[in-house]
Give the backbone structure.
Amino acid sequence: MTKKAVLLLSGGLDSATTFAIAKQQGFSVHALSFAYGQRHGIELQAAKRVAETLGATEHKIAEIDLRLFGGSALTSDIAVPKNRSLENISHGIPITYVPARNTIFLSFALAWAEVLGAYDIFIGVNAVDYSGYPDCRPEFIASFEKMANLATAYALEEGKQIKIHTPLINLTKAEIIKQGLALGVDYSLTISCYDPTLEGKPCGICDSCIIRNKGFAENGIVVLKSETHENEQLVSRSQAKRILVRFNKFSEVLLDFKDIEFIGQAFADEIFRVFRNNNHKIKITAINTTPDINKMIEYVGIEHE
Ligand SMILES: [Zn+2]
Protein backbone atom coordinates (compact mmCIF):
# COMPACT_ATOMS: atom_id res chain seq x y z
CA MET A 1 0.00 0.00 0.00
CA THR A 2 1.28 3.45 -0.87
CA LYS A 3 2.10 5.63 2.09
CA LYS A 4 -0.17 8.62 2.44
CA ALA A 5 1.12 12.09 3.12
CA VAL A 6 -0.62 15.40 3.68
CA LEU A 7 1.09 18.26 1.87
CA LEU A 8 0.52 21.97 2.38
CA LEU A 9 0.09 23.43 -1.09
CA SER A 10 0.12 27.18 -1.65
CA GLY A 11 0.46 27.36 -5.41
CA GLY A 12 3.96 28.78 -5.03
CA LEU A 13 7.31 27.50 -6.13
CA ASP A 14 8.36 25.93 -2.83
CA SER A 15 5.26 23.84 -2.23
CA ALA A 16 5.26 22.61 -5.85
CA THR A 17 8.87 21.45 -5.42
CA THR A 18 8.01 19.81 -2.10
CA PHE A 19 5.12 18.05 -3.85
CA ALA A 20 7.49 16.61 -6.48
CA ILE A 21 9.87 15.44 -3.73
CA ALA A 22 7.04 13.72 -1.80
CA LYS A 23 5.93 11.96 -4.99
CA GLN A 24 9.50 10.88 -5.70
CA GLN A 25 9.67 9.40 -2.20
CA GLY A 26 6.66 7.27 -3.09
CA PHE A 27 3.94 9.07 -1.16
CA SER A 28 0.39 9.43 -2.31
CA VAL A 29 -0.12 13.13 -1.84
CA HIS A 30 -3.19 14.59 -0.18
CA ALA A 31 -2.83 18.28 -0.88
CA LEU A 32 -4.27 20.94 1.40
CA SER A 33 -4.67 24.59 0.45
CA PHE A 34 -6.32 27.48 2.25
CA ALA A 35 -8.68 30.22 1.25
CA TYR A 36 -7.57 32.29 4.21
CA GLY A 37 -8.52 35.74 3.05
CA GLN A 38 -5.27 36.28 1.16
CA ARG A 39 -5.11 39.26 -1.18
CA HIS A 40 -5.93 37.32 -4.29
CA GLY A 41 -7.49 34.10 -5.50
CA ILE A 42 -4.76 33.65 -8.09
CA GLU A 43 -2.65 31.47 -5.83
CA LEU A 44 -5.52 29.05 -5.25
CA GLN A 45 -5.91 28.68 -9.01
CA ALA A 46 -2.19 27.92 -9.16
CA ALA A 47 -2.58 25.40 -6.32
CA LYS A 48 -5.33 23.64 -8.31
CA ARG A 49 -3.14 23.54 -11.43
CA VAL A 50 -0.21 22.11 -9.47
CA ALA A 51 -2.37 19.53 -7.66
CA GLU A 52 -3.82 18.35 -10.96
CA THR A 53 -0.57 18.33 -12.93
CA LEU A 54 1.59 16.69 -10.27
CA GLY A 55 -1.11 14.14 -9.50
CA ALA A 56 -2.59 14.77 -6.06
CA THR A 57 -4.63 11.84 -4.79
CA GLU A 58 -6.96 14.44 -3.37
CA HIS A 59 -6.91 18.24 -3.05
CA LYS A 60 -8.89 20.04 -0.37
CA ILE A 61 -9.25 23.77 0.11
CA ALA A 62 -10.05 24.81 3.67
CA GLU A 63 -11.79 28.11 4.19
CA ILE A 64 -10.51 30.02 7.18
CA ASP A 65 -10.69 33.77 7.34
CA LEU A 66 -7.45 35.22 8.68
CA ARG A 67 -8.70 38.65 7.57
CA LEU A 68 -10.70 38.52 10.76
CA PHE A 69 -7.48 39.43 12.55
CA GLY A 70 -5.47 41.06 9.74
CA GLY A 71 -2.03 42.12 10.91
CA SER A 72 -0.29 41.31 7.63
CA ALA A 73 0.04 42.90 4.20
CA LEU A 74 -1.43 39.65 2.85
CA THR A 75 -4.57 39.71 4.99
CA SER A 76 -5.35 43.40 5.32
CA ASP A 77 -5.12 46.59 3.29
CA ILE A 78 -1.49 47.20 4.29
CA ALA A 79 0.60 47.73 1.13
CA VAL A 80 2.96 44.97 -0.03
CA PRO A 81 6.58 46.29 0.01
CA LYS A 82 8.02 46.78 -3.47
CA ASN A 83 11.46 47.26 -4.97
CA ARG A 84 13.34 46.44 -1.78
CA SER A 85 17.02 45.67 -2.02
CA LEU A 86 18.23 42.15 -1.15
CA GLU A 87 19.95 43.76 1.80
CA ASN A 88 16.64 45.09 3.14
CA ILE A 89 14.79 41.88 2.36
CA SER A 90 17.27 39.89 4.41
CA HIS A 91 16.67 41.88 7.60
CA GLY A 92 13.84 41.48 10.06
CA ILE A 93 10.39 40.00 9.78
CA PRO A 94 8.54 41.47 6.80
CA ILE A 95 5.01 42.88 6.90
CA THR A 96 4.01 39.98 4.61
CA TYR A 97 4.41 37.66 7.57
CA VAL A 98 0.94 36.36 8.49
CA PRO A 99 0.59 35.91 12.25
CA ALA A 100 0.92 32.23 13.21
CA ARG A 101 0.03 31.10 9.70
CA ASN A 102 2.18 27.98 9.54
CA THR A 103 1.02 26.92 13.01
CA ILE A 104 -2.57 27.21 11.82
CA PHE A 105 -1.90 25.47 8.49
CA LEU A 106 0.07 22.63 10.07
CA SER A 107 -2.68 22.14 12.65
CA PHE A 108 -5.22 21.67 9.84
CA ALA A 109 -2.82 19.31 8.06
CA LEU A 110 -2.42 17.34 11.28
CA ALA A 111 -6.17 17.01 11.72
CA TRP A 112 -6.56 15.69 8.18
CA ALA A 113 -3.55 13.41 8.58
CA GLU A 114 -5.13 11.85 11.65
CA VAL A 115 -8.37 11.16 9.77
CA LEU A 116 -6.41 9.66 6.86
CA GLY A 117 -4.12 7.67 9.14
CA ALA A 118 -1.17 9.44 7.53
CA TYR A 119 1.98 9.90 9.61
CA ASP A 120 3.77 12.13 7.15
CA ILE A 121 3.17 15.84 6.64
CA PHE A 122 5.09 17.86 4.06
CA ILE A 123 5.60 21.61 4.19
CA GLY A 124 7.82 23.66 1.87
CA VAL A 125 9.26 25.99 4.47
CA ASN A 126 12.68 27.43 3.89
CA ALA A 127 14.99 29.04 6.41
CA VAL A 128 17.77 30.15 4.11
CA ASP A 129 16.99 32.68 1.41
CA TYR A 130 16.07 35.94 3.11
CA SER A 131 13.41 34.24 5.19
CA GLY A 132 12.73 36.26 8.30
CA TYR A 133 9.68 34.18 9.09
CA PRO A 134 9.79 32.67 12.60
CA ASP A 135 7.47 29.81 11.61
CA CYS A 136 9.86 28.63 8.89
CA ARG A 137 12.67 27.79 11.31
CA PRO A 138 13.82 24.23 12.09
CA GLU A 139 13.21 24.84 15.83
CA PHE A 140 9.58 25.62 15.13
CA ILE A 141 9.11 22.53 12.97
CA ALA A 142 10.76 20.29 15.58
CA SER A 143 8.47 21.72 18.25
CA PHE A 144 5.39 21.28 16.14
CA GLU A 145 6.33 17.68 15.42
CA LYS A 146 6.75 17.00 19.11
CA MET A 147 3.39 18.63 19.83
CA ALA A 148 1.69 16.63 17.04
CA ASN A 149 2.83 13.39 18.63
CA LEU A 150 1.43 14.51 22.00
CA ALA A 151 -1.79 15.96 20.65
CA THR A 152 -3.35 13.20 18.58
CA ALA A 153 -5.18 10.01 19.45
CA TYR A 154 -3.68 8.05 16.57
CA ALA A 155 -0.10 8.81 17.59
CA LEU A 156 -0.89 7.71 21.13
CA GLU A 157 -2.85 4.57 20.26
CA GLU A 158 -0.76 3.27 17.38
CA GLY A 159 2.54 4.30 18.94
CA LYS A 160 3.76 5.52 15.54
CA GLN A 161 5.63 8.79 15.12
CA ILE A 162 4.24 11.63 13.07
CA LYS A 163 6.92 13.26 10.95
CA ILE A 164 6.90 16.80 9.57
CA HIS A 165 8.96 16.73 6.38
CA THR A 166 10.71 19.95 5.36
CA PRO A 167 12.91 18.93 2.42
CA LEU A 168 13.64 22.53 1.44
CA ILE A 169 14.46 23.95 4.84
CA ASN A 170 18.21 24.24 4.28
CA LEU A 171 18.22 25.00 0.56
CA THR A 172 18.69 28.31 -1.19
CA LYS A 173 16.03 29.36 -3.68
CA ALA A 174 18.39 28.50 -6.51
CA GLU A 175 18.94 24.99 -5.07
CA ILE A 176 15.19 24.51 -4.65
CA ILE A 177 14.60 25.42 -8.29
CA LYS A 178 17.45 23.21 -9.45
CA GLN A 179 15.97 20.25 -7.61
CA GLY A 180 12.47 20.97 -8.90
CA LEU A 181 13.66 21.28 -12.48
CA ALA A 182 15.46 17.95 -12.13
CA LEU A 183 12.16 16.42 -11.00
CA GLY A 184 10.38 17.97 -13.96
CA VAL A 185 8.36 20.64 -12.14
CA ASP A 186 6.80 23.13 -14.53
CA TYR A 187 7.23 26.35 -12.61
CA SER A 188 5.05 28.33 -14.96
CA LEU A 189 2.14 26.60 -13.18
CA THR A 190 3.12 28.30 -9.94
CA ILE A 191 2.87 31.84 -8.69
CA SER A 192 4.92 33.34 -5.86
CA CYS A 193 3.95 36.99 -6.16
CA TYR A 194 2.47 38.72 -3.10
CA ASP A 195 0.64 41.22 -5.25
CA PRO A 196 -0.19 39.97 -8.75
CA THR A 197 -2.28 41.88 -11.27
CA LEU A 198 -5.98 41.11 -11.62
CA GLU A 199 -5.08 38.91 -14.60
CA GLY A 200 -2.74 36.90 -12.41
CA LYS A 201 0.56 38.27 -13.66
CA PRO A 202 3.35 38.59 -11.09
CA CYS A 203 4.36 42.15 -10.20
CA GLY A 204 8.07 41.39 -10.52
CA ILE A 205 9.05 43.76 -7.72
CA CYS A 206 7.72 42.39 -4.41
CA ASP A 207 10.14 40.50 -2.12
CA SER A 208 8.79 37.17 -3.29
CA CYS A 209 9.14 38.00 -7.02
CA ILE A 210 12.66 39.33 -6.48
CA ILE A 211 13.83 36.22 -4.61
CA ARG A 212 12.12 33.91 -7.11
CA ASN A 213 13.59 35.64 -10.15
CA LYS A 214 17.03 35.66 -8.55
CA GLY A 215 16.73 31.90 -7.97
CA PHE A 216 15.83 31.36 -11.61
CA ALA A 217 18.65 33.61 -12.79
CA GLU A 218 21.12 31.56 -10.76
CA ASN A 219 19.91 28.52 -12.68
CA GLY A 220 20.50 30.31 -15.97
CA ILE A 221 16.85 31.09 -16.42
CA VAL A 222 15.29 34.48 -16.56
CA VAL A 223 11.63 35.15 -16.17
CA LEU A 224 9.98 36.98 -18.97
CA LYS A 225 6.58 38.43 -18.39
CA SER A 226 4.78 38.92 -21.59
CA GLU A 227 1.59 40.72 -22.48
CA THR A 228 0.71 37.94 -24.85
CA HIS A 229 1.02 35.03 -22.45
CA GLU A 230 -1.19 34.42 -19.51
CA ASN A 231 1.50 32.97 -17.28
CA GLU A 232 5.02 34.12 -16.90
CA GLN A 233 7.37 32.46 -19.31
CA LEU A 234 10.60 30.91 -18.23
CA VAL A 235 13.29 31.87 -20.66
CA SER A 236 16.83 30.56 -20.75
CA ARG A 237 19.79 32.92 -20.65
CA SER A 238 20.62 32.35 -24.27
CA GLN A 239 17.06 33.11 -25.31
CA ALA A 240 17.13 36.21 -23.17
CA LYS A 241 20.31 37.34 -24.87
CA ARG A 242 18.65 36.92 -28.22
CA ILE A 243 15.73 38.96 -27.01
CA LEU A 244 17.92 41.74 -25.77
CA VAL A 245 20.69 41.92 -28.31
CA ARG A 246 19.10 43.89 -31.05
CA PHE A 247 22.39 44.65 -32.74
CA ASN A 248 24.74 41.96 -33.90
CA LYS A 249 27.56 43.36 -31.84
CA PHE A 250 27.34 41.51 -28.58
CA SER A 251 28.78 44.30 -26.48
CA GLU A 252 26.21 46.74 -27.54
CA VAL A 253 22.58 46.39 -26.68
CA LEU A 254 19.73 48.50 -27.81
CA LEU A 255 16.96 48.38 -25.35
CA ASP A 256 13.62 49.89 -25.90
CA PHE A 257 12.64 50.64 -22.36
CA LYS A 258 9.00 50.36 -23.24
CA ASP A 259 9.76 46.66 -23.55
CA ILE A 260 11.53 46.64 -20.23
CA GLU A 261 8.61 48.26 -18.57
CA PHE A 262 6.27 45.50 -19.53
CA ILE A 263 8.90 42.82 -19.08
CA GLY A 264 9.38 43.94 -15.49
CA GLN A 265 12.07 45.55 -13.50
CA ALA A 266 13.29 42.41 -11.70
CA PHE A 267 13.70 40.71 -15.05
CA ALA A 268 15.69 43.58 -16.47
CA ASP A 269 17.77 43.65 -13.34
CA GLU A 270 18.66 40.00 -13.75
CA ILE A 271 19.44 40.40 -17.41
CA PHE A 272 21.92 43.14 -16.60
CA ARG A 273 23.44 41.05 -13.85
CA VAL A 274 23.88 38.09 -16.18
CA PHE A 275 25.54 40.27 -18.78
CA ARG A 276 27.81 41.87 -16.24
CA ASN A 277 28.80 38.57 -14.66
CA ASN A 278 29.82 37.35 -18.08
CA ASN A 279 32.13 40.37 -18.28
CA HIS A 280 30.41 41.86 -21.25
CA LYS A 281 30.74 45.56 -21.21
CA ILE A 282 27.30 46.82 -21.84
CA LYS A 283 26.57 49.95 -23.68
CA ILE A 284 22.93 50.69 -23.36
CA THR A 285 21.16 52.94 -25.75
CA ALA A 286 18.02 53.77 -23.94
CA ILE A 287 14.96 55.01 -25.68
CA ASN A 288 11.61 55.75 -24.10
CA THR A 289 13.12 55.98 -20.64
CA THR A 290 11.00 56.83 -17.66
CA PRO A 291 12.13 58.18 -14.27
CA ASP A 292 11.74 54.72 -12.76
CA ILE A 293 13.86 53.14 -15.43
CA ASN A 294 16.54 55.79 -14.98
CA LYS A 295 16.61 54.96 -11.29
CA MET A 296 16.98 51.30 -12.16
CA ILE A 297 19.87 51.99 -14.52
CA GLU A 298 21.59 53.89 -11.74
CA TYR A 299 21.00 50.98 -9.40
CA VAL A 300 22.57 48.38 -11.66
CA GLY A 301 25.39 50.75 -12.53
CA ILE A 302 25.01 50.81 -16.26
CA GLU A 303 26.07 53.71 -18.41
CA HIS A 304 23.50 54.97 -20.78
CA GLU A 305 23.17 57.74 -23.25
ZN1 LIG B 1 5.37 40.17 -6.90
